[in-house]
Amino acid sequence: MNVVPLTLDYELTAFDCGDSDLNEFLLDDAKHFLEKRIANTFILEDNGRIAAYFCLLNDKVSRVEVTNSRWNKIKDSFPEGKRFRSYPAIKIGRFAVSKDYQGHNIGSMLMDLLKDRLNSQISQSAFRFITVDAYHSAIQFYQKNGFVELSQKEEDEHTRLMFFDMMEVG
Ligand SMILES: CC(C)(COP(=O)(O)OP(=O)(O)OC[C@H]1O[C@@H](n2cnc3c(N)ncnc32)[C@H](O)[C@@H]1OP(=O)(O)O)[C@@H](O)C(=O)NCCC(=O)NCCS
Known about the structure:
Number of domains: 1
Number of strands: 7
Largest sheet: 7 strands, mixed
Strand content: 25-35%
CATH architecture: 3-Layer(aba) Sandwich
Bound molecules: coenzyme A
Order of helices and strands: EHEEHEHEHEE
CATH class: Alpha Beta
CATH topology: Aminopeptidase
Oligomer: single chain
Mean pLDDT: 93
């Protein structure tokens, strides 16, 4: 298996993760997002098949969207004088594993790889957190991969804002 960046001339093949919005994003929107510099997509290939994909974009974790108790914990992890109203982050815009590959640890393996890759890009722009608007059905998956809920408020009826602290990567 191999992770490759989506390019404009990449030949997308069938993909079904069981969620039509996530399927359609990859097949219909991902190249537009790339072209318009809104999000970059990465594909996990397995012998010419698309096993999974995710996309990334810039984000921030702000005081206004976080519960008081969570914000206090975040704040305490920075020294006095380095406490700001927001901290830089990278958002996982989409994350999906094909139905044929679900339940075999592929999602967790891909998440580890994503964290490792982001962690080694230290010459690029700095960020402290990875954020995701997690589907309710996927909250447990993100928890198992070290993410915690940022706010008790539901972002919309389908998602919950969660984050991972890059200081946890070894
Ligand atoms: C959610 C998803 C990415 C998980 O990928 P996966 O490869 O099936 O997950 P893994 O096999 O790596 O699972 C890792 C752990 O998370 C748990 N988990 C995975 N999906 C879960 C779910 N939907 N609900 C509860 N727990 C889940 C697994 O039980 C496993 O726990 P274990 O290690 O104790 O057995 C995948 O099922 C998927 O793409 N679903 C449809 C699209 C989606 O919901 N994407 C997320 C959008 S925010």
